[in-house]
């Protein structure tokens, strides 16, 4: 057997197999008559690609048939059946999957942990806690992720994860840090800040992102240092975390990062500035319209919308007359994304802009705003504009407005 993303498949049973190409109506009868593990696994694998609504008969009949395989002796079949039932949200698979956590094969234990992660059944909490000391690091790491999904007291689950944060294996430490970001509290910030100095880059990134989830302002100095000195992945994580924390003390460093030589860092800094939402960064964000990376400059209108404040309306609207058409287009779309109805008259005027990209974004913005007063002009544009993209956008925005006002 081999494992792909934690899912067992039988050798030679790829998408070209008879089972995988079978009609859904044929699979359940085949499952009932399959006797060898390879046959059973191949059919279970085929079923995993089918939604329960597409199965013949009631879904309950299918789940009952699969549940029967939880009782067979072959642990691989049990793992595969449990995996399928977890996809279908059937927690009756939990006891069998818990039993597999003590199997001698780490691949099977890992598969069981993945399925228990999907199910999130509180009945698996204690067995998962015990599995945090599994001899296989891959299992321990998955168990840490599972504890983030199992329903139950957050504080208790977080307490369990503090020990794996110091595991000998980096993947386990990273998984524990990631889950603590979801479950932890301010009390976990010092340990996560310390984890930023971990020798494993994966742990550093996970710890930084976890601190962003906790939104702990005490982490800002450490995150700023990481933004300056880390590798690409950890610097990106630091920028993202600073955006989540939302502390304006990070703004100067993020503005500096907008000029970084690495486009990945520029994009992360731009997104972070949008999350913080400081209107004072407007001019710095607009400068990114000249960025050589399309990934960066396509972000600008969406970041501008996050920076928008009604008090800064004039600062935005005045840029609809900027000599640079990229600025005019981005500001027009940002006003629509920000829901600024007061800008409708300005956007109507912008529909006459000589640049097609500006007209297109202004039409898009008016559609987003549901501006009924723009319908006549947009209908005219949908038939008469010289640019086909503008005509299409005007038509789409007209339809959107009609749906809004009905």
Explain what this protein looks like in three dimensions.
This protein has 406 residues and is an all-alpha fold. The chain has three domains: 1-135, Leucine-rich Repeat Variant (Alpha Horseshoe); 187-293, Leucine-rich Repeat Variant (Alpha Horseshoe), CATH 1.25.10.10; 308-406, Leucine-rich Repeat Variant (Alpha Horseshoe), CATH 1.25.10.10. Helix 13 packs parallel to helix 15 (232-245) and helix 14 (220-229) packs antiparallel against helix 15 (232-245). The protein is built from 26 helices and two strands. A hairpin with a 2-residue loop joins strand 1 and strand 2. It has a two-stranded antiparallel ribbon. The chain starts with a strand and ends with a helix. The chain is flat and about 75 Å long.
Please summarize what this structure is.
The chain has 406 residues and is an all-alpha fold. The chain has 26 helices and 2 strands.
